[in-house]
């Protein structure tokens, strides 16, 4: 094989674990952030005041954790982001209703 192809393949081989590791840490941080927002929403009475947003945030977080445990870090981060979004919307609505 050509020297350039070998070099490219070796670089790709050595950097691929680093790239997957980046998804691991960003997904983990996103899940932790979503957990905090969900607990804030629960503390503010989100279960009764904004049940749709609360349930959405809870279920997206649950799916995110399942994906994370199955090494689907990119999907886990996406679901955690959606959980955070639902929790943030719920927090805004609870503040309006109080």
Write a concise keyword list for the protein shown above.
98 residues, 4 helices, single chain, mainly alpha
Describe this structure in words.
There is one protein chain. The protein has 98 residues and is an all-alpha fold. The chain has one domain. It is 91% helix and 0% strand. It contains four helices and no strands. Helix 1 runs antiparallel to helix 3 and helix 3 runs antiparallel to helix 4. The relative contact order is 0.16. The mean pLDDT is 89.
Q: Topology of this structure?
A:
Blueprint (H helix, E strand, L loop, with lengths): L2 H41 L2 H4 L1 H19 L3 H25 L1
Order of helices and strands: HHHH
Given helix and strand content, the structural type is: mainly alpha
Task: Outline the biggest β-sheet.
Answer: none
Silhouette:
rod-shaped
Helical proportion? over 70%
Please, what is the average pLDDT? 89
Number of strands: 0
Radius of gyration based on Cα positions = 19 Å
| Number of discrete helical segments | 4
Brief synopsis:
The protein is 91% helix and 0% strand. The protein is mostly helical.
């Amino acid at each position: 094989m050509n020297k350039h192809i070998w070099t490219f393949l070796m670089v790709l081989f050595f950097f691929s674990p680093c790239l997957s590791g980046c998804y691991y840490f960003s997904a983990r941080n996103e899940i932790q952030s979503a957990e905090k927002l969900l607990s804030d929403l629960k503390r503010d009475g989100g279960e009764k005041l904004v049940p749709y947003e609360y349930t959405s945030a809870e279920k997206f977080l649950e799916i995110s954790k399942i994906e994370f445990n199955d090494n689907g870090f990119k999907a886990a981060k996406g679901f955690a982001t959606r959980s955070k979004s639902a929790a943030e919307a719920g927090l805004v609505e609870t503040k309006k209703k109080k």
